[in-house]
Here is the input.
Amino acid sequence: MSNADELLRIEGIRKTFPGVVALDGVDFDLRRGEVHVLLGENGAGKSTLIKMLSGAYTPDAGRILADGREVRIGGAQDSERLGIATIYQEFNLVPDLTVAENIFLGRQPRRFGMIDRKRMEADAEVLLARVGVDVSPRARVRELGIARLQMVEIAKALSLDARVLIMDEPTAVLTSEEVDRLFAIVRRLRAEGVGIVFITHHLEEIAALGDRVTVIRDGRSVGQVPASTPEDELVRLMVGRSIEQQYPRERPETGTALLKVEGLTRDGVFHDVSFEVRAGEVVGIAGLVGAGRTEVARAVFGADPYDAGSVRVGDVPLRRHDVNAAMAAGIGLVPEDRKGQGLVLDASVEENLGLVTLRSATRAGLVDLKRQREAAARIAGQLGVRMAGLGQHVRTLSGGNQQKVVIGKWLLADTRVLILDEPTRGIDVGAKVEIYQLVNELTAQGAAVLMISSDLPEVLGMSDRVLVMAQGRIAGELAAGDATQDAVMALAVSTPAGSTNHSNGTEAPGGH
Amino acid sequence: MATDTLKSRPGAAGGLRRLLLDNGALTALVVLVIAMSALSGDFLTADNLLNVGVQAAVTAILAFGVTFVIVSAGIDLSVGSVAALSATVLAWSATEAGVPVALAVVLAVATGVACGLVNGFLISYGKLPPFIATLAMLSVARGLSLVVSQGSPIAFPDSVSHLGDTLGGWLPVPVLVMVAMGLITALVLGRTYIGRSMYAIGGNEEAARLSGLRVKRHKLAIYALSGLFAAAAGIVLAARLSSAQPQAAQGYELDAIAAVVIGGASLAGGTGKASGTLIGALILAVLRNGLNLLSVSAFWQQVVIGVVIALAVLLDTVRRKAGATPAAAGTGQGGRGRQAVTYVVAAVVAVAVVGATSLLHGGDPAGKERKIGLSLSTLNNPFFVQIRAGAEQEAEKRGVDLTVTDAQNDASQQANQLQNFTSEGLGAIVVNPVDSDAAGPSVRSANKADIPVIAVDRGVGKADTAALVASDNVEGGRMGARALAEKLGGKGTIVILQGQAGTSASRERGAGFAEGLRAYPGIEVVAKQPADFDRTKGLDVMTNLLQAHPDIDGVFAENDEMALGAIKALGAKAGRSVQVVGFDGTPDGLKAVEAGTLYASVAQVPKELGRIAVDNALRAADGERVEELVKVPVKVVTKENVAGFGG
Here is the structure.
């Protein structure tokens, strides 16, 4: 009955957790040599589904077939035996071991009980070449960038003779060049006959890479369509309604300059960075990963020191490396690493929302918990945070709702300048639009927003001006009307003039 | 995402789950109390429960302080030492420096806070890992308390000692202090800015910093609070013993950490509550108390305590896993199945406790009216093991039930054990005090209960003992001096290895030796160093001394264990170019005398000590008159007479 090319088939899978149905009647199949995209909002059940395949969960009902035979995947060993390898968003690598050791972790080739380093490194070399990544097997994983970590993960999967490769949002953290390189590898693996399950939130990647798409909504598979399906249709399937506008930016009148940064320099990291953000304005910062965007944002906020330059809010100069001075002046930072820097994951929604205002809500050492709770309830309602209650731990919220909590804590503190670093990374389409609406509301009330993003359509769609950084300098500034993907990328890969002489963003091409 | 779907769970179920989670440690405590009550009729009495409260107090107060640190993802290993230092500072400034008592208390608290601030400073600004910074403070504070007290316990001012008494004749003040500190802890953690910051810092330090919390300053305050609580614990501890002991509260930091973790806090930070910590401390106290009452062998007690700590935390982890992250369990069964798991674990704990204690239950309840207790300072030394052997032989011969406890050289643990003996209503108590003065208050309460107390080897200060059965240490010291000096021909250089600073045995032997040496002006003492009656330390100290004084002619060690350590350090020199004299006449010591490496040992007869002590205890229990001081003679054993001396 099943065709010979079929690697994997899932029929009517159901999985419940106490109180909820995570998956209910999901069908899915994977053929040899195809890229099958799994599409769905956060919380739709994609992760639960792949965890069934990797052996982390077992289904309550339904069947999993591998090569036409029904199988039971009870643990990681089972899935490894079936040739299923999974690359999660959070990599499972040991930072202080070498690349080769990581690839063969637990399976190092041995001779007389000792690890045969030579053979291990030679084998690793072959695998790395197959992935097409230029990394020494002897390099320590700690020293590698995120893209190369991913390549090492892929090499590790290949070393297991994986026939099924599951990739959970592999492009979320990559720059567009790195994405291109990843796609090349995925295409090569596909040509070699590997079946690839690909999870992404970037719709444009589907047409570029995918063969078929299975859309999951609320724990059910709602459709299987070819990858050539138009994006609007995919969005409609995914969210159950059509989203009129992906980037609903409303541009209010801009006022006076709220944030002024002049000549900001940290030796070896960023140089002579100057810009200003006016009231009611969204300024985007684009650039490649490693261009120094996050570093500048953290320095402006006082989280890290800088060597030269100044930061002013209104006309008040801020003390260097002083988060509290920045906060007192009305700056807020929504950091890039939401879980690592933005949230106390095992604390409640209420506690996280009240973090910034904790001090101001304190009288004689005692916190006014009642007022904190009321404020948290008000802001959570206003932002539409979907939760069981204010006492729910934020760890158990979806990415979009977590991000709303991070933004919410700054809204409570009457923030006038909000710095958003990758505000929608890993967040689904529906939640993204809600966050954009929030940005609109903020700027309508006269706040200034500085937004760093590696998602080019987002930068272009939501910014009023775009600054492009390259190699630690501002390579140029583009007005909203002039900013196109090509213009931004051209600047992002340029070598800014300032590398040799002093310059700042105002002399950029395509300026005012 | 599976975890995301939790949000749709009804709030009521979440509340119930939370309640169960918070009560994980409480369940373990209830199980323990039920088990102990079932096993011992003496457990569930008002008196004994108050005892448990008193015995939990010091650990609980220390643990409250440590809770702050652990909630903020740190660790504080220094609290035991800081407690001892604060108490010593109080006692020293009030008695020897003549400072008014109120000011002395302020000084003691300031000392604790200062130690905490140093910890906090090293961690916040010096970027030392908390483990290392507080490990350093553990050593520094202990050393300073020995420096301040010069190694001897200092009597505690009477007005402060009332902190160790009872109110209205029944309500112990330490329990009140514990409850008060617990309430303060709950208030700080739950309601104050610094308390809420602890959770944020422990949960995610970077997020807290980027939200404007002044993390470094908070850490200073957190460790200072821990120091403050340690000072309070130290004062309560010393008040109970009426004496500030420089060696007090050793290893208490681990008890405190255990109490916090048993109470449901995570060493990873971000969780923990005052109520949990209190329950954790009570679990430890109930165990120690119950095991005493059940006459479980001193050695097995430690095993049982370790097992229960592991099981209590395991129980909590299982509950947590079952309740908080259903996804991680990876199985399809519902909440009921997981609750079953919890109950199974609880049952296993109960069975383990009941089984272990009844198995190890040494005594035979038949001779209940003829039941006596022996509290030894330590069993980590053959001398005391011999005392126990003599006592046990005598008890068996006379058909009485003898309970032996091991205070592990900790005066306050001994106080607990004596208190347990008293509340059990034993016929008589034999005590070998860790410290003479510190044993006073607990012996006084035995006096009040009309239980005769026999002291063995060391006397008890400021309390009535029916008899003191002891070797004549001063005379022994003199004899040791004579033996060594004669052997050296009246001239030469020697070193002295001293026993544990502050013990009467060390003081008396040292004094006797110095006295005896006056008759031999040709002998020069070039060094005097403590090696704590311990063989390993004797080896280390001797090795060090040999670097400075390679040409010595003799060694006097205040006990055989240290002498044996010294002999190891001396190697081939021992018995040839260097003569070693020990004290005690332990079996190992006598063997060395036979072998010629140890020139002489001033032999006590520890078995005799134990035997005579039990004999006197039984006579006192029967209302017979006993001698107030029973001197068991000592004898210098050398190669010539060792054959006739089969310890």
Remarks:
- Chain B touches chain A at residues 1-11, 13-14, 18, 191-197, 199-200, 203-204, 206-214, 270-271, 326-327, 330-332, 334-335 (CB under 8 Å).
- The first strand of chain B starts at residue 154 and ends at 155.
- The CA atoms of residues 300 and 634 of chain B lie 33 Å apart.
- Confidence is low (pLDDT under 50) at residues 1-10, 324-335, 362-368 of chain B.
